[in-house]
Every structure is written in structure tokens, then in C-alpha cells.
Design brief:
This protein is of the alpha+beta class. It has two domains: 48 residues; 231 residues. It is built from five helices and twelve strands. The protein has a twelve-stranded antiparallel β-sheet with strand order 6-5-4-3-2-1-12-11-10-9-8-7. The longest helix is centred in the last third of the chain and has 48 residues. The mean pLDDT is 89.
């Protein structure tokens, strides 16, 4: 009976020991994916920012500039691209919509970002655009990969339409989470005008004046290393018009300058969402694999102990106490 139990325990030990790496290296890449239908909205603010007043042709300080950023999964497009890509693909239709302190429209930049659902690596397909212009991303955008590493990554900048390193600067704690801090600086670069601007002004009309648009930013992200999701993001953003003497009386005029930060209620919502998602990722990468490995080791030890008990020789039976038989005369 002991030997039969030992064999059953040995089989279970082998099963759980084999399941441990399967969960980490086989199931995790297939189960941990960004859903194609995800919708996310984030509100960012720049307080006491400088903003151009197109009506009076001057730059003014305003109490607040608001940027509403939405990411909407396009399921139909992702399924179409998956047919030729041979892997799970996510298509995000993104929009950054800028409002002044009175809630009036300032500018908007639409994007389409196409990426691998697990690795977040860009997938190049028709429709990959920024503000209607075709682009080819060579780095991540919006989200880091699952199990983010302590290293630099290539990050796509939508204004310049180029990719540059975003540097790992260290580990810190943010709202109770251990996070990696990343930083990227884009030097002053000439960039296109938005296709949609206030007062019905178009990019073609602005170009005819000889004006050029220049932009620089310092980009900062606090990233949860388990899910790869940023729990906070900030930018010190600067935007100028050059060759502006004819219209503004000086060569350079500020279009926008400010420290853009996530609104606190959206920070709280993002942290709560990432805490929930990181538990699911840790189940596949840590909790279950290590738990099953430990369980398999314990079952193996118990199986060997029972096998040793079953092979131990039985003790000899004690001799019966009997009276000596008398010898007949």
C-alpha cells in the first residue's frame, strides 16, 4: 500500500515540477496580453502655463492648460492586421486634445499605434500614422513591455516622428508601488504644424507666412516593472514659432510652455488598475511557478520517504513462550 502511494506522489511531483516552467515560459507569453478592445482616458494639466493668443498675436500666462488623452482599441483593424502578421496585434487609435483655461480648443493630434499584444513591439502595417502622416515606429509608445527591465528603451516621439532612447534612471516608490523611473529629453527640433488649429487656421496657411514650429520636451515616466504600465507621466513641454518677426515683431514666440502632469484623480485610478493587473501577471510569472515547484519538491520528498519505509525489512516475530515437554520414563 505504501509503495502504491509513493508512486502516486512521485507522479504528482513530476506533474507539478513540469507545470512550473510551462506556466512561466509557455503560458505567460500566450496569456499576458493587452486586450484589443481596451479603452483608456487620461487627463493631464499644466498649471500657470504660457499659451499663445492667436487673436492678439501674443503669448500670455494662463491658469491652466488641459490635455485629454484617449486610447481606444480598434478591434476590427487589429483582426485585419493579425491575418498577415501571424500574431496577436493591438491597434490603438489615440487622440491628444488640448484645451485652454476657458475650455476652448487649442489643438489636437490623432495617432494610430499598432503593436504586438504581448511584447508591445511595434507592428508595421498600413494605417500607422500621426496626425494623418504615415510613420514607422521603431520603439515603444504609451506602454512598456511586461516585466520591464532596468535598461534604456527606444521610445517614439509623436511630435518629431522619430525614435530616441528613454533612459532608466533608477528605482523608487510611488503610491506604495516599486516603480522604475525613465527620462527622455528631446532637443529643440523643427516639427510639423498640427493639421487642426484654432480659428480655422490650417497648416498650409501658416507655412505660407514663413513661420516654422520648433519643439523640445523633457519626458518622465514612473513605470510598474511587472505590467509595464506607467503609473504616472509628466512632461516639461516647450513649443515655439520661429521666423515670427513679420507677424509678432520678434523672431521667436512661445506657443506653449508648461509642466504637464497627470491629474491626481487619474493617477489614483491608474495606480488601482495596475495593482489589479500586476497580481494576474505575478500569478503566471512568480506565484504559481514557484508554488508548483515547491509543491513538486515536497511531494517528491514525501514519495521517497514512503518508498524508503516500504523497503525497510520487517522485524522478526517474537518466539512463543512454551513449557518444556517432560520426558517419559
Amino acid at each position: 500500500m505504501r509503495r502504491k502511494a509513493s508512486l502516486i506522489l512521485l507522479a504528482l511531483a513530476v506533474f507539478f515540477a513540469a507545470l512550473s516552467p510551462l506556466l512561466r515560459w509557455y503560458a505567460f507569453p500566450r496569456l499576458a496580453k493587452v486586450p484589443p478592445s481596451q479603452y483608456q482616458e487620461t487627463v493631464l494639466e499644466a498649471k500657470n502655463a504660457t499659451l499663445i493668443d492667436y487673436q492678439h498675436l501674443t503669448s500670455v500666462t494662463v491658469p491652466k492648460v488641459t490635455i485629454v488623452q484617449t486610447l481606444k482599441g480598434n478591434v476590427a483593424e487589429s483582426r485585419k492586421i493579425e491575418k498577415t502578421a501571424g500574431k496577436d496585434v493591438v491597434v490603438w487609435d489615440a487622440l491628444s486634445y488640448v484645451l485652454d483655461d476657458k475650455g476652448q480648443f487649442v489643438s489636437k493630434i490623432p495617432e494610430r499605434y499598432i503593436f504586438d499584444a504581448h511584447s508591445q513591439a511595434p507592428v508595421h502595417a498600413t494605417g500607422e500614422t500621426v496626425d494623418g502622416d504615415p510613420v514607422r515606429r521603431d520603439g515603444i509608445e504609451f506602454k512598456w513591455p511586461f516585466l520591464t527591465e532596468k535598461r534604456d528603451y527606444e521610445y517614439f516621439d509623436a511630435q518629431t516622428r522619430t525614435t530616441a532612447p528613454i533612459h532608466y534612471m533608477g528605482t523608487t516608490t510611488f503610491h506604495g508601488l516599486k516603480v522604475y523611473y525613465f527620462e527622455q529629453t528631446i532637443p529643440w527640433t523643427q516639427v510639423p504644424f498640427p493639421k487642426t488649429m484654432p480659428l480655422g487656421v490650417t497648416a498650409d496657411v501658416v507655412k505660407q507666412t514663413g513661420l516654422t514650429r520648433w519643439y523640445s520636451t523633457k519626458r518622465m515616466f514612473w513605470v510598474d516593472p511587472v505590467t509595464g504600465g506607467p503609473v504616472n507621466g509628466e512632461e516639461i513641454h516647450q513649443d515655439e514659432l520661429h521666423n515670427a518677426t513679420a507677424l509678432f515683431g520678434k523672431d521667436k514666440i512661445t506657443v506653449f510652455s508648461g509642466h504637464v502632469k497627470m491629474r491626481e484623480d487619474y493617477v489614483d485610478h491608474t495606480v488601482a488598475l495596475i495593482k489589479k493587473n500586476r497580481t494576474l501577471v505575478l500569478l503566471l510569472t512568480s506565484y504559481l511557478p514557484w508554488g508548483f515547484l515547491g509543491l513538486g519538491t515536497a511531494l517528491l520528498a514525501l514519495s521517497l520517504w514512503l518508498e524508503a519505509r516500504s523497503r525497510r525489512p520487517a522485524a522478526p516475530a517474537p518466539a512463543a513462550d512454551t513449557e518444556p515437554t517432560p520426558v517419559g520414563v
